[in-house]
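I trust your eye. Have a critical look at both lines of this record:
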Amino acid sequence: MISEIKMNEYGDVIRSVFGRHFDVFKRSLESILDDVERAAFLLGDAVRGDHRLFVCGNGGSAADSQHFAAEWVCRFKNDRKPLPAIALTVDTSVLTAIGNDYDFNHIFSRQVQALGGPEDVLVAITTSGASSNVLLAIDQAKLQGLKVIALTGEGGKELKEKVDVAIVVPSEETARIQEMHELIYHAWCEFVDAQFFGA
């Protein structure tokens, strides 16, 4: 049984996490909503034109890529037709072949080269803004005429010059950035459902 002394000693850790989350949420409300909305309309254009969504990222952002693509292909809240989306993080044979035969930095860009077309959308997730394989995917996507949305943190401010829309969460703490990213792509899902499916 956890002693009351231990609870008092470490309870502040939990409160601190919630406090930092709330602080980043408040600052995000003030600074990124316009960009989140601009990205939502880009995604809406892709849905209207039957274009595909590609998502990529590393680690926790790989999990977010899969989560977001699953909401597109399956559904978000209400029943609707499936939407075409591919998380570029999931095919282990492709990932390991590219990593082995070429370089780990090309695991996403080569898939974009093979699968992406004009007016498709790449959502590139990098909390640091410095993930080489994500940056190469962005370059390849722009070369092929895809629209590119970047989800990043304060370290990725320069991505605003490279992509169609960059959403820069005002934090350098990876966990807090990831928490905002999940909120953002859930908001996009709800936006698309409301715009096209009356949900």
About this structure: The chain has one domain: 4-197. Residues 4-31 form the longest helix (28 residues). The chain has a mean pLDDT of 95. The first strand starts at residue 53 and ends at 56.
